User: Fold this.
Amino acid sequence: MSLSLVLRSPRKAPVEDDIRPTLSDLVRQVNGDWQSATASAGSSWGEARREQAARLSAEAEWRAAIATLTETLAAHPRWTGQAAGASAREGIVIAGPLPILTDPELTQRFETWVVTPQALADALNGQQRLLPSSGPARSRSLVPIQALPLVAGDPLLEERFCLVLTPTMSLVLVLGRPTGEDVQFQYSFDSQAFHHLWARVRSRIQPTGKDKLTALEQSLNQWCPPLPDFRLITYFSQRLLAHLPHRVSAEALTAEDRNGVQFAQWATVPTPQVQAAAAGSPAEVDSSSPCHDAELLQAMTHEIRTPLTTIRTLTRSLMRRKDISKEVLKRLQRIDQECTQQIDRFNLIFRAVELETTHRDRPTSPLAPIALAHIFQDAIPRWQQQASRRNLSLDVTLPPDLPTVSSDPTLLNQVLMGVVEWFTQCLPAQSHIQMRVMLAGSQLKLQFEAQPNESAACPWSETSQAERPPLRSLGQLLMFAPETGGVSLNLNVTKNLFQSLGGKLTLKQRPQQGDVLTVFLPLETREI
Assistant:
């Protein structure tokens, strides 16, 4: 089983024979060559734009696979057999060159490893003293991500990979370049693929990681990769498709274009721009078009999230140290918080870009029952902190028993944070925001009501309104607050995100009283 996408990227110089086959070669050998015939067919698209679209699509497949893997592991039945050993771990996840799992709940349940350059591995394993030590030793409740070192220029670092082994499944995910071919994303539940990839990864580990490698192999020996269960493969494939942008509809393409579109090709740019590029039109996409915005934002999002993820990973490894002072720990926690907020912000922007640049007949975001109490417990303090930064106050009134709603938990959390960010940018200093949660028929209503400062001589007067920080449009998708430098999704894009979640967003403007922003979420009516 594999899902692959081909990019016609410039060929790199041949590498030395001792690092072949690549991980992508190994998955290809197990899955067979049937996919090559469909993936390598020609295209009439302009080379540069087709290449760019294919690259973005390949990365979208990888992100969709990681999201699906996270869902699959979260739903994984808790293992109580003897094979779990004293640690009671439910499986092993090996990724490179950066960690895949960051959810503390999953890292508690699954033994998590990362194969990464020597310097980063040393930092993750606590072998480098990056900060001065002081204060008494303290235990940490965080479960560490253990690291295996590679030499800095190892070709494995050019591929992204993830190997998963549990009592019920073995899975490999690879985003890389098979020898002599273009970049592809592939996955396989075949145990042979797991054995081949692990043997290749193991052979590249540096001698300095010998002790860690021995510990990992002892854990791997606890389980034998099981035969793939067709039900699990079906579930994973369906969830993967649900996370992908929708394919170009046949009606949107001309007969000539249909001949150049492959079955596994997924669109990341609107069809008119693709057709213009295919025709070699010198009139490139208008710089103010949504497509231009999307390409820029997708590139920026990738370039910003990657270093932030590395910083956060290093920060969390330092937070596990027992020899750092309380003051240093406090600063590390602040760094971790800021990195997480910015990563979530750019994840939301990227999700919005995908929604705005693909056809609206695409599937909506996968919905699941959510206990809002869990989301609010973590989100409300962050909303209040966000309001406090802009010299605002936020109070929340919740009913005694919060119902269960149907939504995407990760996306809902990010979208609600984006709503609070956008709303607070629109208000003058000293304002108060009252949030109320109540039932509204078959929906749950979250209402944010702006209230003026009662001590103001003439609240919400024309003078007061003029003092609001004006938001400026930044392309087709974003808004920019000049006074604070804050960037947020505009209201229309945010509305579309809520619509993809099965919800609704409305804004009632009351110049003399304060605006009211209302979010409607569908209640979960199925029996759980």
Observations:
- The CA atoms of residues 416 and 514 lie 20 Å apart.
- Residues 1-7+46-127+143-245 form one domain.
- The radius of gyration is 25 Å.
- The chain has three domains: 1-7+46-127+143-245, 252-363, 368-522.
